[in-house]
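Recall from the previous lesson that a structure prediction takes nothing but the amino acid sequence as input. Here we apply that procedure to Helix-turn-helix domain-containing protein from Streptomyces sedi. The sequence below is the only information supplied.
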Amino acid sequence: MTTETSQTLDRGLRVLKLLAETDHGLTVTELSRRLGVNRTVVYRLIATLEQHSLVRRDAGGRARVGIGVLGLGRQVHPLVRDAALPALRALAEELGATAHLTVVDGTDALAIAVVEPSWTDYHVAYRTGFRHPLERGAAGRAILTRRCKDIDNEDGFVATHGELEAGASGAAAPLPAACGIEGSVGVVMLSDTVPPEVGPRVVRAAREVAEALR
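The prediction returns the following tokens.
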């Protein structure tokens, strides 16, 4: 910690991150051990976060992320979308395909930014807010592949055909883990197969979006 930072705020943010990484919550004792601080400090942190609905405790005393984080999350999407648009626009124009940024929303893949090419006679209609199960479509599959860390053994992208729309193919690459957002960048096109140049291009676009988010 430097003199310009707040140790208490840092610990509170670490609590939120730890809780976000588990589905079953954590006890005060577990948090105390992971943070390396005494239980009294953790109790104060939890109580403060509870006042802002960022943390809740169940009947068994396990702390979980509270519903208040949803309000913060809704404000994040527009910022992420604006940062990603230049890279998506370049991707769409270069490939003549609909480009999109997709993030995880529960068990779904949610498109939060979409750019359609300006010069094509026809292209796939793909709208902001479109969602589908993570297990279907290139965008969701790319995210799941990153979770499994199998992407390092592949070409860096996932290609699919006809999983979301008949006659349409898609290719997507996961956002680098270092950017802190679980998502993917990809394109959708009316084609039986994904041309060979598309995969490497979406990988580069995913890196460009990640850079813009830093």
